[in-house]
Design a protein that fits this description.
By secondary structure, the chain is an all-alpha fold. It has six helices and no strands. Helix 4 crosses helix 5. The longest helix has 54 residues. The two termini are 49 Å apart.
Length: 175
Amino acid sequence: MTRREFMDELGALLGELPDKERLDILADYTEHFLIGIKQGKSEHEIAESLGSPKAVARELLAGYRIDQAQSNASVGNMSRAIIATISLGFFNLVFVLGPFFGLIGVLVACYAVSLSLLVAPLGILMEYGVPAPSPERLLLLFGSLVSIGLGGNVGGRLAAVDQMAVPSVPEVSAV
């Protein structure tokens, strides 16, 4: 999506805002594009990082309706603010929590695979004991070692991904 497409769609979606506020918002988003272009990003990358114009407009309109309800407490303003807040909450619930739970499910499945790759060889070795030098038993032994190695590798990589996903909080020293 180009800057023009993004700005046109956002401007159309913010049509119910007063002109001054709408133009201020559009100027802010134009500035986002200009700063991104100076940093060497393409218009498509900038538009993608800002999110969809529909989502941006929903948040801005919800904030506007809440401000309007606070400054002019009428039944109509209050109901519009409540509906805007509920629709924004539903939007976040569906489009943010859905992928989040999907990724959590994938992460849990990967941990389960890692654990099974680590534990399965122990069952094989316990059933057959220490393998005698027959080809079948050596195959089981080497298969078990490969399984342990894969399980440890997958588990170690998952732990590293978990560490990267959780941002560290800087310590604040008391003066």
